[in-house]
Amino acid sequence: MRGVTGRLMLLDSASLYFRAYFGVPESVKAPDGTPVNAVRGLLEFIDRLVKDHRPDHLVACMDADWRPQWRVELIPSYKAHRVAEVHEAGPDEEEVPDTLSPQVPIIEAVLDALGIARVGVARYEADDVIGTFTARAKGPVDIVTGDRDLYQLVDDAREVRVLYPLKGVGTLQLTDEAWLREKYGVDGKGYADLALLRGDPSDGLPGVPGVGEKTAAKLLAEFGDLAGIMAAVDDPKAKLTPTQRKRLDESRPYLAVAPKVVRVADDVPLPEVDTAVPRTPLDPAALEELAARWGLGGSLQRLLTTLVA
């Protein structure tokens, strides 16, 4: 990342290829009949993103561990409902559609042949990789994700925004701090506190009973942040209802560990990679072979044309 001052685009890869998988018909297949809808859909996504936003640097961030043990140790329910198979020697296996799993290695091989930087780090989620790249960036950052958890990284002063796909990637919600304040009543830094207070069933985060999104936003507006809210719990003069005070007090064990689970890491040991948007394929022969074997056709050609331009 040394010397990187241009616009950096960070792809939450799993979020995007899941969307591609469900957005492109499974009838899109390779010559041998293997579904490649997620592969081709992701290539179309990247083509549109590069064409519309012209990043100088591009990184496909990967989940080397989608459910890190250090997060599970703090909150055992973290993503527990999405575990398909437990592995004692490594990361648990996530529940993924049968016809999507075989496409992930193809996606990785195509990205590598194109020369698009692909980064995953053991014991960390893609969110943490994104958080660390963002913390180290010296220029504007566009984070492309369908995961609202990453709203916590939005920072107008540093020109960090989230591009949230509403329909494919042709329609993106450009999430800045003004949008966050309008929608949730918090800025980027406040979003993590709001998220842990209200909880998130999709991630197995219980939240504080009786504290939904609106109540969490009101508490943060009144007391500033989680630390301020907990100080208010201990202050008899603070404007909390008896029920709120009781529920927040009873939730202390959860609230003591939730910040570390919910907030993305910004200190991941990233490998040295070339993040520049490739203008020509890194491995043309491998890419040609992949294109023929998996029938990537126009999806790949359009991306190649965009990269050259």
How would you state the average pLDDT, rounded? Answer: 93
Distance between the termini: 24 Å
- How much beta, percentage-wise? 5-15%
The strands making up the biggest β-sheet line up spatially as 5-2-1-6-7-8
The total count of strands amounts to: 8
The ordered string of helix (H) and strand (E) elements is EHHEHEEHEHEEEHHHHHHHH
Radius of gyration: 21 Å
Total helical segments = 13
Helical amount among residues, as a percent range? 40-55%
Largest sheet: 6 strands, mixed
User: Would you tell me the structural class of the helices and strands?
Assistant: alpha/beta
Shape: globular
Please mark out the parts with pLDDT under 50 across 5 or more consecutive residues, or reply none: none
How would you characterize the overall build of this protein?
It contains 13 helices and eight strands. A hairpin with a 3-residue loop joins strand 7 (160-167) and strand 8. Helix 2 (37-53) packs parallel to helix 4 (103-114) and helix 4 packs antiparallel against helix 12 (284-294). The strands form two sheets. It has a six-stranded mixed β-sheet with strand order 5-2-1-6-7-8. It has a two-stranded antiparallel sheet with strand order 3-4. The protein has helices spanning 13-23, 37-53, 69-74, 103-114, 126-136, 177-184, 188-198, 213-223, 226-233, 242-250, 252-262, 284-294, 297-308; strands at 8-12, 57-61, 83-85, 93-94, 117-119, 141-144, 160-167, 171-175. Helices cover 45% and strands 11% of the residues. The model has no long low-confidence stretch (mean pLDDT 93). It is an alpha/beta fold. The protein is globular.
